[in-house]
Amino acid sequence: MEKSCSLLIHFDKGTPALANEIKEALEGNDVPAKVDAMKKAVMLLLNGESLPQLFITIIRYVLPSEDHTIQKLLLLYLEIIEKTDSKGRVLPEMILICQNLRNNLQHPNEYLRGATLRFLCRLNEVDIIEPLIPSIMNNLEHRHPFVRRNAILAVMSVYKLPQGEQLLVDAPEKIENVLTTEQDPSAKRNAFLMLFQCAQERAINYLLTHVDRVSDWGELLQMVVLDLIRKVCRTNKAEKGRYIKIIISLLTAPSAAVTYECAGTLVSLSSAPSAIRAAANTYCQLLQSQSDNNVKLIVLDRLNELKTSHKDVMVDMIMDVLRALSSPNLDIRKKTLDIVLELITPRNINEVVLTLKKEVVKTQSGELEKNGEYRQMLIQAIHSCAIKFPEVASTVVHLLMDFLGDSNVASAIDVVVFVREIIETNPKLRVSIVTRLLDTFYQIRAARVCSCALWIIGEYCLSLSEVESGISTIKQCLGDLPFYSVSEESEATDSSKKTQQTNSITTVSSRRPAVLADGTYATQSAASETAFSPPTVVQGSLTTGNLRSLLLTGDFFLGAVVACTLSKLILRLEEVQPSKIEVNKATTNALLIMVSMLQLGQSYVLPHPIDNDSHDRIVLCIRLLCNTGDEVRKIWLSSCRESFVNMLSDKQLRETEEIKAKAQVSHSQPDDLIDFYHLKSRRGMSQLELEDEVQDDLKRATGEFVKDENDANKLSRVLQLTGFSDPVYAEAYVTVHHYDIVLDVTVINRTKETLQNLCLELATMGDLKLVERPQNYTLAPESSKQIKANIKVSSTETGVIFGNIVYEASNVLERTVVVLNDIHIDIMDYISPAVCSESAFRTMWAEFEWENKVAVNTVIQDEKGFLDHIIKSTNMNCLTAPSALEDECGFLAANLYAKSVFGEDALVNLSIEKQSDGKLSGYIRIRSKTQGIALGRNKDNTQAEGKQLILVILIFSSTRQQRLLDMNLRLLHISHL
Questions:
Q1: According to the model, what pLDDT value does residue 690 have?
Q2: Average pLDDT, the chain
Q3: The dihedral sign for the CA sequence 435, 439, 442, 443
Q4: Which residue range or ranges hold the Coatomer beta subunit C-terminal domain (predicted)?
């Protein structure tokens, strides 16, 4: 059997003569040199050296030493060395240390006694321990608590040995007597722990005898009591009524650790509303009393679990949970808001929104560094509240509009998106929102916020006064025209000079545009640059010209949005303004603004000219104002808003579907047993037990929230490990529980002989770790055995489990080895579809550094079918609205999102195009926060079929460079994607 090791320490072994140096130092009289020599010896033993020549030296020169450090190192040395031979018998020289251990157990110094007793807890050799039993038992009555507590642990470890019950027949009785008289908290805890693990009935009797005094016990003992209650109630659920009172009494314990464990135990044992409410109250108190951020995050996780299973109880605790927003940590605030937003009801919405408004006001103080990020989180939370309950929108929308000009662009974008949605869903607020938006528009400094605000102005300015105010606000923010100018000394002289220079053969000049003082345009020759100043940009007023400032930085997309907004306002002005003169005047001014933007974009005063898309958009607006038809007018004034309404409807539909998908489905069988509550005897049952019975009956009647797996899925997890012709047949059923993998291996002896010492030897590759090594078995002829193996998973990395079965047969002198097939862990078990907002997706896409881009080459010719297959194969969720994927246009772009059980984000963008020959081409781009691997694997190995798609598997971990190299090599062999 393998030796347990709790710590591996690297030690440079140095030269081969180091053992001789250690031996010389141990034989000397220098105590510090002996200490260093013992440390080196222990290090060498931990790194695999045997050093048999040092044993006698240590017995002769180290054993008699009185120095405490040397004695402690001696115990470490004795713990590490081999004490048995190959047949499991104790080595004869080990008897030499028994007398020394007995002397230590009787030594007048309590430290040596305690250290030796602790050393005995790690010994498994009965031949060494048996002579020391009387000395161990005598230490149970030592005057010092340090000795007594270690003596109790030594008794427990000896009693747990295979022959421990014969060595210490009356140990439970003696430990129980010690428990009744012991005053030291640690020793009392160890005594109760010994009874709990070795004589559970005695521990239960002691606990029930002293029920009224449990709240006065020490923290360590109370923790063991809770462990005992959990174990007893798991094995016998009918007994939990006897222990609920103990748990309730411990909820008010002064120790935070005890109250936390109490609340967790109460939730695991009872589903009664009063019990859940008591546990939730305890968690909320810990949330307020504890200053450690890690503790708060753990408590919030527990509250989140309660919210999932007992939402009706947690709704009443929403204001207590909101108090956690007082913490300056953003992770705590985010988790708190996530919990609260799912507990909102019509009863508490006003209180929640009022609290959130107060928090938003606090962020204006600017005392904390991350006020902007916190404000963004609050705005998003208020947005969610207003969408669920539109009646509260009027109380928050005007407050949030003060942040349209926020220096944190993300917060301002969230505010303007919130305003855009509220103005459509709340018709009563439209007039006040438009008025407030026009008043605060000049404060906006971000281009994206200006674009969205302009769209709102263009769509929702309906009355004559609103339209005129909208046009006036845009003109004021654009400032005076033109956007740039060229100064000249004399127009007439310069014009004649230009004519002469143009007619001259020897002078070649280029002509440049110039804007004159009256707004007309002229040309200027490069030959006359000495007479003219270079063109300069007219900045205008920075306080009122936010649109002008953004335009002069080269943002012509915003210029196109300005042109579209002016076009909509002019078209609507024609409907509401009876005076044609005013309409023509407004149209002329709008056309002048558009032409000025085109002139600015085509000039050389900016480093980058106007892009083609913005140029075409502005030209389209100019043509629209010059010649307007009824159909075009309908498109501009009605269709845009209808598209926005459809987008909101799709968003609400998707959110509803996601909520339904998250909801657990109950299943019940028609022949399931139902216990009728009113026919039960209530004698001797407390109110809590009665509530618990009701909840159990309801669950049993409506069905536990368990989803039965498909039998086909179960069969797909059965893996054949050996061949049918092997003497031992083995197959494994793989079960994945988030961080754990359970292998249920069935081993069948197909021979007519008994197989002895049969052992399943497993090894792992990747971030997998075998928890424990399976033990040896004896397998009768043609019999089978179920062997379970637990494997820990630390990341979503490709993992492989391999191994063999080793056994001995009676007619074969050597051990036989059967090599097992490799087990490849399916990473898709660790990835699940997830949901995030479009803005959050874009933010993560911009922040994540690692990207893999794979070309699409598939036989599938339908764009939507290709997307559906990618979603099904990769276990991801499509964030793109279904309405955006409906029409057949030959192009498709979609965003996919998923999260692993380790909290890692997976982002995928699919962009494909249908070629003239019917084939699809394009790219799949995968992004993650850390370095990762994107592997291609064909789901269908049949070449004749060839229609299955390559499955993109996302694996996120802190991978090494060799894994990236392996990824690139694998990608070279991908034939279909």
A1: 55
A2: 77
A3: negative
A4: 670-808
The DSSP bridge pattern shows strands 800-809 and 831-833 to be unpaired
Structure tokens at 868: 């559906």
Please give the biggest Cα pair distance in the chain: 126
Q: How far is 409 from 842, CA to CA, in rounded Å?
A: 14
- The string of DSSP codes covering 26-57 is HHSS-HHHHHHHHHHHHHHHHTT---TTHHHH
Check residue 90 and report its DSSP letter: B
Predicted confidence (pLDDT) per residue in 53-96, tens digit: 888 888 888 888 888 888 888 888 888 888 777 677 778 777 77
Q: How far apart are CA 114 and CA 152, in angstroms?
A: 11
Side-chain half-sphere exposure of 300, counting CA atoms within 13 A: 24
Alpha carbon distance, N-terminus to C-terminus of the chain: 48
Please state, for a pLDDT cut of 70, what percent of the chain lies above it. Answer: 77
Q: Residue 262 pLDDT > 50, yes or no?
A: yes
Q: What are phi and psi of 37, to 5 degrees?
A: -65, -40
Residue 5 class from Cβ within 10 Å (0-12 exposed, 13-18 middle, 19+ buried)?
exposed
DSSP β-ladder status, 718-720 and 728-737: antiparallel
**Per-residue tokens: 410:** 């993300």
Looking at 101-115, 143-157, 432-446, 502-516, which range is the least confident one? 502-516
Residues 6 or more apart whose Cβ sits within 8 Å of residue 247: 226, 229, 262, 265, 266, 269
Round to whole Å and give the CA distance between 417 and 647: 13
Of 439 and 671, the structure prediction assigns the larger pLDDT to 439
Q: Where are the alpha helices (DSSP H) in 160-218?
A: 164-167, 171-181, 185-198, 200-209
Distant-in-sequence, close-in-space partners of 926: CB < 8 Å, separation ≥ 6 = 851, 852, 853, 854, 906, 907, 908, 932, 934, 952, 954
Distance CA 771, CA 679 (A): 48
Query: What region does 113 belong to: left with phi over 0, alpha with psi -120 to 50, or beta?
Result: alpha
What number of CA atoms fall less than 13 Å from residue 116's CA on the CB side?
25
Predicted confidence band at 939 (pLDDT cuts at 50, 70, 90)?
very low
d(CA 248, CA 149): 29
Say if residues 677 and 697 touch (Cβ distance below 8 Å): yes
The answer to whether the beta carbons of residues 882 and 892 sit under 8 Å apart is: no
Helix 430-440 / helix 409-425 crossing angle, nearest 10 deg: 150
Cα dihedral sign, 780-782-785-789: positive
Question: What are the beta bridge partners of residue 514?
Answer: 522
Residue 207's contacts (CB-CB under 8 Å, 6 or more residues apart) are: 214, 225, 228, 246
**What is the chain's alpha carbon radius of gyration, rounded to the nearest angstrom?**
40
The pLDDT-based confidence of 538 (bands split at 50, 70, 90) is: low
Contact status, residue 805 vs residue 825, Cβ threshold 8 Å = no
Give whole-number Cα distances, 160 to 78, 121, 156, 284, in Å.
Answer: 21, 10, 6, 41
* pLDDT value at residue 532: 41
pLDDT at 535: 54
pTM above 0.85, yes or no: no
Q: Name the DSSP class of 736.
A: E
3-state SS assignment for residue 853: strand
Is 926 in contact with 914 (CB distance < 8 Å)?
A: no
How buried is 200 (Cβ within 10 angstroms: 0-12 exposed, 13-18 middle, 19+ buried)? middle
**907 has which bridge partners?**
897, 927
Given its phi and psi angles, is residue 808 left (phi above 0), alpha (psi -120 to 50 degrees) or beta? beta
Task: Look at residue 377 and tell me whether its pLDDT is greater than 60.
Answer: yes
d(CA 579, CA 582) in angstroms, rounded, equals: 6
| Spatial CB neighbours of 773, under 8 Å, sequence gap ≥ 6 | 1, 2, 761, 762
Residue-level pLDDT at 686:
54
